[in-house]
Every structure is written in C-alpha cells, then in structure tokens.
Amino acid sequence: MSKKKNFTSSNVEIRKKPLGMRIWNHRGFYLMFLPVLIYVLIVYYWPMLGIRYSFYDYTLKKMEFVGLKHFVSLFKDKDFWISFKNTLELSIIKLLLTTAASVIVSVFINEMANLFAKKTLQTIIYLPHFMSWTVTAAIFTLFLSTSSTGMVNETLKSWGLIQKSIDFLHETNLWRPVFYIVNLWKETGWGTVIFLATLSGINPELYEAADIDGASRMQKIWYVTVPALLNTIIVVLILNLAKVLNMFESVFVMYNSRVYDVADVISTYVYRKTFLTAIPNYGYTTAIGLFKSLVGGALVLLCNFASKKVRGRGIL
Amino acid sequence: MKKKILSVLLATAMVVSLTACGGGDGNTQTNDAEQSGGNTEQSSGNTEQSDGNTDTSSEEEYVLEKLHIVVDGTLTANVDSGQDAFIEQWEAAVSEKLGHPIELTIDQLDHSDYAGTVSRYLTTGTPGDGQYPDALIMSASMFREYAPTGLLWNLADAYENAEFQNRLQLKSVNENMKTSTGELYGFAPTYGNGCVTYIKQSWLDAVGKTVDDIKTYDDYYALLKEFHDGDPDGDGTTGKTYGVIAAGFGKLDEAPFINYMPEFWWGAYPDFYQKDGTWVDGFSEQATADALDRLAQAYADGLIDPDTEDASTKVAREKFFSNDQSTSEGVFTYWAGTWLRNLTDSMDKSEIDVSLGDDRLVQLPPIKEIKDTWGGYINREAPVWVITDDGDGSNAREQAIFDALLDTMLDGDVVQTLWTYGAEDVHWSTKAESFTTNPDDPEKKKDYEYADGEFHLMQSPNDPNTVWKKNHLDSVLVIAPLTNGFVNDDPLVTKGNQFFTDNCIDAPTAASCETLTEVKADLATDKQTWMNKVVTGQMSSADAIAEYQAKYGDVVATILEELNAQ
Q: N or C: which end of chain A has fewer CB within 10 A?
C-alpha cells in the first residue's frame, strides 16, 4: 500500500515528522487540552459504560448476562411501540407548528412600524418561555379543569356554548390539540428570536426595489421576506429534527393514565418503568435508552446529510 | 518561549483545579471506606474481610459506631423541624444505653419518590458506601416485594430476644408478618392505621341531617346528592359544590387500594387476595365491576369532584378545607386519629366554621354495606423497619443495628419518647412555660401555660402558630406503650383513634410472588387507567375487565398459580 505524500505548491515534498515528535513539538497545546480530555472522558464517556447493562438482568443484587433478551422483549412490547410512535408524532408536529407560528409572528413583528409596540410585543411573547413546565402545566390544568374551578369550562357554560364540562386533558382526542396549543403559547415567542435576527439582516434595498416595482405589502412579504427566511427555516428544522426523541418534561407534567395511548413518549415510558416500579429491572430500561440513542444517532446523521445538501455544510 | 511557559502554567493550574474538584469525592470514598471499616472490620463487614476474620469476630465484639438510616416523610422531625436536635439527643441516649458512642445519619427522602430512590440505593450501592442504608422504612407493599430478595436481614431471633418483648401489647402485628417457616424480615413498631370518612358538620346542618341518618349506601348517596345539588356552603348558588373528594377514585398501586372511597368500593378488593384460603384475583370479580359502576354513576351525577382523578392527597386535603368553600366538598375519607386533629386545625386556619371549634368534622361509622362485606374500615398492613443484610454470613452487624435502632425505639422511655414526640425542649418539654399561637390574630390567638414537670408539646419549630403533634411513632398506635407517662392527651386525637379502633378490620395480606413483582407496576398503571376510564364514562366496567383479562389473563393465571403454591 503506497503512502500518500504531501507536497508544497512548488512541488517540494513535505516530510511529516513522526507522531511522537509532533506531539512533543506541540506539547503545550496538548497539555492545555489534557484537562478537557480528562473531563470529557470522565463526564461523558465513563457513564457510557453503563450501556452494557442493557445486556444484563440488572435488578437489586442480581446481575446476570442475558444477551439480547431485553431487546427482544422491547420489540414485542406493544406499549413501547406506542410510546415510540407518539414520540415521533408529537415531536415532529410540535416542531412544524412552533416553527410555522414563529415565522408568521416574526414577519408580523417585523412589519410593525411602532418601535415601542414592537419591543413590548416581543417582550410579552418571550415571557412564557421562561416559565417552568411545571408551572405552565399547573396553570393550564387549573384553567381547563372540569370542576367548578375550571375557568374555561365555566365560561363556556355561562355563555351557553356547552352544557357539560369538556375534559380537555383527559380525552384522548383532545389531549394532543391542547398539548400543541400549550407548546405554541410557550415556545412561539422564543422561536421568533432567530427569525427576527435573520429579518433584520435583509438588505433594505430589496424592499426599495420592490417598492419601485410597485409591490404591495403582502407581495413584499411573499417575494422578499419569506425567501430570505427560507434558509433559516430549513436550518432550524434540521437542527431540531435531531432532537425529536428528547421529549419528556412537557409531556410528563401534562399527561395522565387515560391518555397514554396518545401521549406516552419514550422518556415517560422509561421513567415509569424505572422509577415507579418497586424493584425495576435496570437492564430493560437501559436497553430502551440504548435503542433510543441509536435512533437518535441515526436522525443526527440524517440531519447532517440533509444539512449538507441544503446548506453545503453539515451540522457535525 | 513565554507562550510555552504560560501554557504550561495554565495547564498545570487547570489540572490542579480539576484534581482539587475531584478530591472531595476521593476523600469521601476513603472516609467512607474507613468509616465502613470502623463498623465492619471486627465483624467481617465485607466478603474479603470475612474470609479472614469470621473466625475471630463474634457478635459480642461488634461495635456499631455509625448508623445510617433512610426514612420517608413519616419522620416528621425533618431537617426544617428540629431533626438536628433529635439526632443529637438520640445519639446521647443510645450511646449511654450501648456503652459506646454511636453516630446517627438520617437520609430523609422525598416521600413521593421514596420507593424509587430506595430501589436505586439498594441496587447500585454496597453496605458501608455512605449511602446504602443500614436500616430503612418500607411500606407494607414494598416490604412484601423485598422480603424474599435476600437483601433484608431475618430479625426473628432478635425480635424474640428484644427487651421490649415483655411490654408488647399487640404481638400479632409482627407475628403475622412472619413467613410460614418463621422468618421475620421487618419490624412494625405500630399497627397500620387506616382511613375513616369525615363529614363537615356545617354541611350536614345545612341539609338538615345528622350522621345517624347515614346508615346505608343509598343514604350516603342521597347525602352526596344534597351536597351537590343544594347550597350546603350557603353562598347562594347551587350545583357548584361536590359531595366527596379523594386522592383518586381508588389507589390501585398501593395496598389496601380502596380506603379513600370505601363507600363506593364496598364488597370489592381490586387486587389479589385470599378467599377461603385460596388466592383469587379481585379485579376480575363482579364486585369490582359493581364498585366501578357505582363510582361512574356518582361521577356522572356530579357527586364526585372531578379533580379527584388527578389529585394528590395534599391537593384533595387542601380543597376540602379551602377557605373558598363554594367549590369544596362535604365528605372526605382520610387517615384516622391524629388526622382528625390536623384536618380540624387546617379548617381553623382557613377560618371555616369557626364557631364549631373541634366539632367541625364528624366521623361517619361504616355504612351497612361495608359492615356486611368487609366488616369495617380497612386497617392497612403496618409500615415496617427493615435491616439490610450485608451477606457476610455473620449476624453481628445486623444484630448491633437492631439493638441500637429497633430495640431502643420501644424502650418505653427516653428513646421511645424521641421517636414519639421528638427532641426534648425542642418539640416537647416538662419545664414550666407559656406561649401563644397566632398572637397577632385576636380570633385565632390561643394561650398555653404549663407548670413545671407537666409534659406538653411545644410550638412547632417550623411554625410557631401551631403546636407540635408527633414525631414518627403514634403514641396510640404503638405496640408497646411509653412507660414514662408522657401522653399527648388531645381529646380529639383520642376520639379519632378510638373511633377507628372500634370500626376497623385488618386489611387482607398483600400478595407477593416473582411474576407479580415483575408486572406489578404495569398492572397497577393499567388498572388505574381502566378504572379512570370507567368512572369518567369512557368505557363500561365490563369492557374494562374484558380488556384486563385479554391483556393479563395468562399473567394472572401464573401469578395465582405461584401464590397458591406458596
């Protein structure tokens, strides 16, 4: 096998120094990097050794190698597949909805002429993002309660629109819409940050040119603003797509056993299997975690590929 | 060159700082090992040592210098309520009894995630690692699952030889926990207690009824209906109040499952239980379907507060005694005894029915259907203390833990008083003193005055407007009473305990077998889901039980087979 040789522009062969020599020459940098390496190894890679438990029955003091038993059980587990499907559906729909809403709100904010109103609106719509999911869920649970303390139901009843309270958070056909609305309320404002930054970078001459061409306001939005945002929208979607399996808190604080069929996601499923079981088998739940990581890894690679295609460079 | 020197210096500083940061752990581990050694070397604390030391160590030689216990919220002297003083006084008293110093550390876990955290400690830890408990509290359900695992020490002999034996009044509590071959893996210092149904007196007055009018399920149902349809809170509106609230329509993940809504669940026991000596599956019985139908009807009629479905015990309690009674409930089934006092005090704080004083709540005797089927309110299986077995083949460490912790816990004197009321001069005292609760509120202000030598509870360390009630042991439920005459003679608590004692029966023994342990969490979750769906009208009870049998039929058959083979 021939060794690849490096040449300078004047065709002079560059002889690479031995690795040890190169390390010694750059020892200062390597020494500086050492603490980071140690940190990464200890904090990120050492815990990964726990992956091996997915091949063991690991419960209390029993640790017995069982090969792929947990993966076989996992693939036969109907509840797991429900949670897997729910994770993808909830995450992707939520991502599309919040991105679309953020884009629309950003465009509207960008069109506002009054600077004070613009800043005030921005501040107001950012605020929900800083509210914890626990508080958010408590507020919406109170608003949507079917008891006589539930503001929404009592208002609808007093207006004569409904006779009986609607159980928004317990009906399987209503839970998801409520979940998406709560997510939109909480995250749309924050999602506008990146789009507003992009909008502020659009060359004003493009709008001036559009004005000269007699474009209406809507035409300027459609033919100037939206195309300028398109690349950012795709980047945001791609970057978030890699994280779709990491959904826990927002579901955990809002779901209940009656809506497991439409709300249970992988993380909540693992949580129940691990922490609500008196004597859990950590092997099984580790296997679920490993499977989730593998799918997550595949999604990252897919997104990297998509990013290369769209942006000309990857995300890795 | 300067850059190189600077980079070397920077790197060195970072490495040193990193080492220093990690140094704590390293030291801790060393200390833990040393500490562990302090307790175990003489008794062959780990396997390697045991090989060399077993012959030379004896139970008499073992000196327990440190005791690490894990507790839940039932130790009310928590870190915000004088736990330091409790520990200090416990160490002094027990050191004196044992004849050598002993150090107590308490790991008080979040009550709601207790089982999960304990499971992690026991799975990933090892005795002496600083986190692994020497002894801990377990609910009856947890205990049934852990007892056969080999992690718990068989304390049958220690229990038989304990000093408190000659003062035991309720021997059956622990005797009933022994296995068929005589092993005893847990120790219950009290009996279990249970729930009774409380009704607001003012609401009864408002609908013109007395508790004597409520004899049957129909009477009870009619009362709830009047509470919902009428205006029992007197705010001028109807239909906004509810009959009853609880922390769930049933608590199907924790024995005895049905004690929060007993009037609806009469005759049913939605778990595995022994019927005429044979284990049966109560969830698939007609009695469970009937109970679910009763709950569904009451829910549809608006008698059960819809918040019941997701309410924690705290939420249910607070809604019951909320100062806004216009959306509250008239009936609440909750723990007996001390809780009659707690609920009354909470209503007082919320300024509800102030004129009724300690007569705000009335206890409903079990309705006829409960008496005819179960026999009374359910007295749950008692929570227990367990000692972890380090598996070294020697009982020395475990016996020493028993002597230090459990034998002294019921000494009838100083240590038992600590566990019952808390620390002297922090939670209780015999010194002359006077204090006032709610001094700034003329309506709630209450003066207390005690003479020298008079036992009394003091102001709560974390709330000077309330009087401390108890620590871990309930003086009335304890199986060996105090001998020093320190009795909290609150008449309301006494009345509550007496009422429960007069109207309770023991809960069925909790089932435990290998297959059940594996599926228990899934089973409980699914049962809870089916129950909620039936009660809220999403499915019929027949469909729920059919789904249950379709999903778990084979598993249930295996469980029953294992249980009946025991």
A: N
